[in-house]
Design goal:
The protein is mainly beta. It contains two helices and 16 strands. Strands 1-2-3-5-6-7-8-11-12-14-15-16 form a twelve-stranded antiparallel beta barrel.
């Protein structure tokens, strides 16, 4: 009798640990484009009427850190994330404004040992992730200028910008599946940024927070998942060797983001940091290549990845903006 109860208890523990492992994989297999973003010169001056197409590919791999109370160890993940994006600048109330949209795809695999028996588990997924939209406006230091006006300006003023990022629930999602690439919820991130050019250097500071709506179809389809705000801070220092050729040193910290399922105890609070470098290389007059590398410096809970990303950008202007 006791042996049967013990076996049943171990089975329940292992099942619970497996679910926790899968829930964390759910978070990790979505493209790592929320709090872990590193984006130098996000509010840098641009002329109005500029349009750009971006195609990128990223690879993230490394360990996943769990709360010590969770019976999941030796977890490693590798995630690949191609993305296609579009953007456009225009004038709004006399200020430089930028709108971007990005559609990411994700595929990857996560492995780890689960439960008291250290049973090896493996999960893989592939599909579209949630659509990303961003609206930003420079509030100080960068008025709306045509291409000719922009070429005559010096662009040495302090910049203050604000943005709103939106993550739409458009990714692959099935309520009866524990692992999904989509989130089945909206996420919003207001952000305030300050940029200051000095000689050939460029300094950036951004502060923002992600706010999440609830997922009312969380596994197994009738659960409700909520998440606390996830705050973040970015610092960047870049150096321009010549126009469009620059190198940046990047850092970010993000914390909070506790998850709550069906009104239970909050879990998964983060207090993590990352550092990296970004290099922008011009390719002719209308194209550029951006290469970036970042590494998880500290991770209380969550991913501690090494990430390498490469993106290509093609730029063109409206005819009216060049007059």
């Amino acid at each position: 009798m006791q042996h049967a109860q013990r076996s049943s208890g171990l089975a329940s523990i292992r099942k619970c640990a497996t679910l926790i492992f899968a829930c964390c994989a759910l978070f990790l297999l979505r493209v790592s484009v929320t709090a872990q973003e590193l984006e130098p010169r996000a509010y840098s001056p641009s002329p109005t009427g500029a349009n750009f197409l971006v195609a990128g590919f990223g690879r993230s791999s490394g360990e996943v850190v769990f709360d010590p109370s969770v019976q999941v160890t030796d977890v490693h993940a590798t995630i690949y994330s191609p993305v296609l994006g579009l953007g456009r600048t225009f004038g709004l109330f006399g200020r430089q404004t930028l709108v971007t949209a990005a559609l990411p795809y994700a595929f990857g695999k996560i492995d780890g040992k689960v439960g008291p028996q250290l049973q090896q588990e493996s999960i893989s997924r592939s599909g579209l992730a949630d659509l990303r939209l961003k609206f930003s406006i420079n509030l100080r230091g960068s008025p709306a200028l045509s291409v000719r006006e922009f070429a005559k300006a010096k662009h040495r003023d302090l910049l203050i910008g604000a943005s709103l990022s939106v993550q739409a629930p458009s990714g692959q999602y099935g309520p009866t599946k524990l692992i999904n690439l989509g989130t089945n919820r909206w996420a919003l991130r207001p952000e305030l940024g300050i940029s200051y050019p000095w000689k050939k250097f460029y300094f950036d500071v951004y502060a923002g927070a992600w706010f999440f709506t609830e997922n009312d179809r969380f596994f197994p389809g009738n659960s409700v998942k909520e998440q606390d705000p996830l705050t973040g801070l970015q610092l960047h220092v870049s150096y321009s060797f010549r126009p469009k050729l620059w190198l940046a040193f990047d850092s970010t910290w993000y914390g909070g983001g506790d998850a709550i399922v069906n009104g239970g105890e909050p879990t998964g609070r983060r207090n993590n940091s990352r550092a990296g470098v970004t290099c922008s290389l011009p390719v002719g007059k209308m194209q550029s290549i951006k290469i970036s590398y970042s590494n998880g410096v500290t991770a209380r809970v969550g991913s501690k990845f090494n990430t390498v990303a490469v993106s290509w950008q093609f730029l063109w202007f409206d005819r009216s903006s060049t007059r």
